[in-house]
Amino acid sequence: ENAYFASRCNPCIENSTAVRVQCGVATPFTALNAAPLQWRHAHQSLTPDPGDSQAMMPTPPKAIPFQGRTSIRVRYCECDPMGVAHHASYVPWFEIGRTELLRAADISYAELEESGIFLVITRLEVKYRQPARYDNQLTVITTVTRGGRARIDHDYELWLDEPGRERTHLLATASTTLACVGSDGRPRPLPEW
Q1: What predicted TM-score, i.e. pTM, was given to this entire model?
Q2: Are 112 and 58 within 8 A, CB to CB?
Q3: Catalytic one among 49, 52, 80, 155?
Q4: Are the C-beta atoms of residues 107 and 46 closer than 8 Å to each other?
Q5: What is the separation of C-alpha 76 from the centre of its chain, rounded to a whole number of angstroms?
Q6: What is the pLDDT of residue 56?
Q7: Is residue 80 annotated as part of the catalytic site, yes or no?
Q8: 4 beta partners
Q9: Are the beta carbons of 189 and 149 closer than 8 angstroms?
């Protein structure tokens, strides 16, 4: 089980912001409508009692926020020779925003997959407005817009952050639909949380 480490200064916790570190990579993330962050230790399990009807489904220790904000820096390998981010680079940035919503509740996609729960993209739509360029600082705002018994819909906004100013130019918008499937690839209900 992966442990997540974070700055634990009181101002960050009170403002629901932190820097999470996994495998030596820091990821700034802000849960825009979440309760103050709480941290679990590596020895604390997210798996329910095996006798429970929801056995092997990880349960987050707190509510999953409906909206979050993630910072991204455009890397050289994501750009063409002119320094413009390739259109395919945007999709992983949206995925980062989506996975950080789960991390805000101290649960990860890896933990879901270990328990036999997989979220697969069944629809993806991206509208490009302006190009992102090498070394730009970006903000991805991810919002859960709908949910069903076995699906989750998200909307995304990708913003350029200029030095000293956040979200100065809207670069792209996107939306996805995810379906919940089991390890056999057949649809299954989402966890009840």
Answers
A1: 0.69
A2: yes
A3: 80
A4: yes
A5: 22
A6: 57
A7: yes
A8: none
A9: yes
